Amino acid sequence: MAAIRSADEKSELEQPEALVLETKSEGSSEAPNWTVEEETALRRKLDWQLVPIVTILYLLCFLDRINIGNARIQGLEEDLDLYGYRFNIATSIFYIVYLTIEVPSNILLKRVGPRFYLPGLVVGFGAVSVGTAFVKTFEQLCAVRALLGIFEGGTMPGLAFFLSSFYKREELYFRVGIYVSAASIAGAFGGLLAAGFSQIPEWGIASSRLHTWRNIFFFEGLITVLVAMTAPIILPQSPETSKYLTDREKYIATERLRVEHKAHPNEQVQWRHVKRSLLNINNYICAAGFFAINITVQGLSVFMPTILRDLGWTALTAQYYTVPVYVAASLVAIGIGFVSDKTRMRGLYLALFTFLGIAGFAMLRWGHGNALRYTAVYLCALGAFPGGPGFLSWGLNNAAGPAVRAVSGGWIVTLGTMGGILAVWAYLPNDGPTFPIGHTINLVAQVFVLFLASFGIYYCVRENRIRARGGRDDRLVGLTEEEKVDLGYRHPDFRYIS
Q1: Residue 426: is it exposed, middle or buried by C-beta count within 10 angstroms (0-12/13-18/19+)?
Q2: Contact predicate 86/138, CB 8 Å
Q3: pLDDT at residue 27 tops 80
Q4: Residue 441 has pLDDT above 70, yes or no
Q5: Contact (Cβ atoms closer than 8 angstroms) between residue 230 and residue 118
Q6: What mean pLDDT, rounded, does the chain reach?
Q7: What b/e string do you get for 89-124 counting C-beta neighbours within 10 Å, with b at 16 or more?
Q8: Would you place residue 12 in the very low, low, confident or very high pLDDT band (cuts 50, 70, 90)?
Q9: N or C end of the chain: which has fewer CB within 10 A?
């Protein structure tokens, strides 16, 4: 028996970390009673039902967030008298409100369900975007940006938690990568739409004439509202209530997550889940990484049109030149998500891609010539955009069960959103047109991401080895079976994805 036990332990150590928890079982009832083919067919059906609509919703979310950057070079700055740091203040207010909403929103989402709640948020920020078309003063702009933060604050962590309620850990990064890549797709569409909408002739009633930048907010917001109102037709409340799945598929969809996370998928958020999320070291590694990545992603998203305009191009040409950068970044982000899920590794790819960002910002900081600096913008986007879904997925992967994941997702995005505030103040008017301060801040942020990804790998590998040799088994002493299940990521059988 001793020899058999040693062989079993050796087999566990050789398995991919993401699968160790799933293959461990406390009895035959935990063994999957479905085939690999059935699970593959279910996953493909979920992909077609969930991923496209989630991607579209986040694309609209990011589009309505960053269109202020496109509007800025189409006359917003002059019409609202945004002298000095007023533009930076208006964009900062959005992030300040945004980060206070995320955790409460995810807790509410866990209670009421996603089918109507998530589309409701999207309808809300679409309506706010429409309202932005009618602002006349700096103060009104600040007010609508605060409202936008309220509705958008719950969207990104909410969509990530929604997907984590349908997909296993080793399936999540690719799907999150697809929907978060909508941020870069939104940048591409944003440039094209801004260029198109800004050319619409002036129209409207005498007291509220819409033109150039006002058209950008109005029509992009209107599109958001109309699309979001159709989303509840497609979005299910949970795996077991999806009208697109058979009874057998509903059973598999629910059970495979329960077996993996050793927790009931419908558990409600309690104070102990909040506490456990706040004490998870991995959450802070991922939140810090998300913070540093956000400095670049949010900074590029809002200021790229301005950076390109200051290279000497006209406003319209600068809008067009943002498009291929975002398209390339989105394709790379999706590709990295696919490879990361297949290899069941997170930190390695996050670390490697920082070298692109480091090179890009070094070129922007010290390089000369439009061609070289435009190439550097590509490197910055390619290096940074895979990091957002990477750190968020990594955090959700290593937070179990469902209630802890709901809080963890919101908490990671809350802390990470602070990077957006710093991004707003990285590129100041008096620092242009070369923006040495902003590029230096982003260069340091990319180096910080390299350190965090490396440390995250070390922490997860070290903790898994401790658990494999029984170093955390004392956590089970004196606990009932129900209390053991409730340990989540602290359970000795749980293995971190590194």
Answers
A1: buried
A2: yes
A3: no
A4: yes
A5: no
A6: 84
A7: bbbbbbbebbbebbbebbbbbbeebbbebbbbbbbb
A8: very low
A9: N
Q: Which of 451, 461, 452 is nearest to 498 (CA)?
A: 461
* DSSP state string for 24-48: --SSGGGS--S-HHHHHHHHHHHHH
Dump pLDDT digits (tens) for 286-296.
999 999 999 98
Helix, strand, coil percentages in the chain from 3-state DSSP, rounded to 5: 80, 0, 20
Report the percent of the chain where pLDDT is more than 70. Answer: 91
Burial 195-228 (b: 16+ CB within 10 A, else e): bebbeeeeeeeeeeebbbbbbbbbbbbebbbebb
- Cα four-point dihedral sign 260, 262, 266, 272: negative
As a whole number of angstroms, the distance between CA 135 and CA 71 comes to 13
Cα–Cα distance between 147 and 142 in angstroms, integer? 9
Q: Which residues, at least 6 apart from 100, have a Cβ–Cβ distance to it below 8 Å?
A: 153, 414
Mean pLDDT, rounded, for 222-240: 93
Six token digits for residue 398? 């290593």
What pLDDT, on the 0 to 100 scale, is given for residue 117? 95
Amino acid identity for residue 30 in this structure: E
Strand partners, 203: 210
The encoded tokens of residue 292 equal: 């540093």
pTM for the whole structure: 0.75
